[in-house]
Specification:
Layout (H helix, E strand, L loop, with lengths): L2 H16 L4 E6 L6 H10 L13 H5 L1 H4 L5 E8 L12 E2 L8 H20 L4 E4 L7 H7 L4 E2 L5 E2 L7 E8 L18 H5 L5 E3 L2 E2 L5 H7 L15 E3 L3 H4 L19 H5 L2 H5 L3 H7 L9 H13 L2
Parallel strand pairs: 3-10
Antiparallel strand pairs: 1-2, 2-7, 4-7, 5-6, 8-9
Helix pairs in contact: 1-5
Length: 309
């Protein structure tokens, strides 16, 4: 790879670090040949449940050059969200990624800063920033960029830090020095598969999204299925079980992002307090949080379902 591309890559990685990203890797923007049959099979087996948006933009999902015209590189970035303090244990659980301010906004701002820096330092570079909000296969790109391997629970894993981080991308029309994938370090471990109360990890590396507690508590708008009663283990929004039991997550370190710090009530509320939460208090605690995706009614539905267990 030529020295200019190398120099540009180093500049971007250095700036990403300054902006607080855990790590940054580059890969060539091209068709994801390995992912195509996998995604097709997953959709055919209806493992996306009611998430019909997963069926849209199949070509763009697999080929960033169709998503961002003229793109040459995918810059993948990781941003830590592991909290400094956890919720009390004897209460309804909220996924750690949703403790603080909605990550879409926090990370999008940082990506804008990074893009501006690239344009100032390197010149006329065009592209788009993505934070889990477009047809981009985040984990596949992060894996290609050497940021980690995809574990048996289908989350990206990194030796030094585990998996409690967000993945984001810049897809740009700039040639860079590309990183190489790392090897898989799950070995014979099946902790995540064994721990999942709804058996959503149907085989190593394959998650049936339509059986996942996160899917039920966030994506599913209808009534929760009665056959799942008693299987939610107190999770009211999302679920971290497969990550919590993963041995690699003993390396998780607390994030340094003040915007991800939660409202104290989120950490301290008892079951009774959650059960009696009013709409106003819900709006106040989760004012700028991803939990608002379920809306008050959805959150109450989840609490009621879990409290009946």
């Amino acid at each position: 790879m030529n020295s200019i591309a190398e120099k540009h890559s180093q500049l971007i990685k250095q700036k990403a670090k300054e902006l607080g990203f855990l790590s940054c890797g580059m890969s060539k923007a091209e068709f994801l040949e390995d992912e195509a049959p996998r995604l097709e099979k997953w959709l055919q087996q209806n493992m996306h449940g009611e998430m019909k948006y997963m069926e849209n933009h199949f070509d763009k999902r697999l080929d960033p050059t169709k998503l961002v015209e003229g793109s040459k590189s995918v810059v993948s970035l990781l941003y830590n969200y592991y909290p400094q303090k956890l919720q009390r244990e004897d209460t309804y659980q909220i996924s750690k990624y949703a403790y603080g301010r909605d990550y879409h906004f926090v990370i999008k701002d940082k990506l804008k800063d990074l893009m501006q820096f690239i344009q100032q330092e390197i010149g006329e570079v065009h592209g788009r920033a993505f934070v889990d909000s477009a047809p981009v296969l985040d984990k596949a790109w992060a894996k290609r960029s050497g940021l980690g391997w995809v574990g048996k629970h289908s989350n990206l894993l990194t030796k030094q830090v585990g998996s409690f981080y967000f993945i984001a991308e810049l897809i740009i029309d700039l040639d860079l020095a590309y990183d190489t994938p790392v090897t898989d370090h799950c070995g014979s471990c099946t902790a995540c598969i064994d721990a999942c109360p709804t058996q959503a990890i149907v085989e190593p590396y394959v998650v049936d999204g339509s059986k996942c507690i996160s899917y039920f508590t966030i994506e599913l708008k209808d009534d929760l299925p009665s056959e799942m009663a008693g299987k939610f283990n107190d999770w009211a929004f999302g679920c971290d079980i497969c990550q919590d039991v993963c041995p690699w997550n003993k390396f998780s370190k607390a994030h340094q992002e003040p915007l991800f710090n939660p409202d104290e009530r989120l950490l301290n509320y008892s079951k009774k307090e959650w059960e009696e939460i009013t709409k106003d208090v819900f709006q106040d605690i989760f004012r700028k949080s991803a939990v608002k995706r379920t809306k008050y009614e959805g959150f109450k539905r989840n609490i009621k379902f879990v409290s009946d267990e």
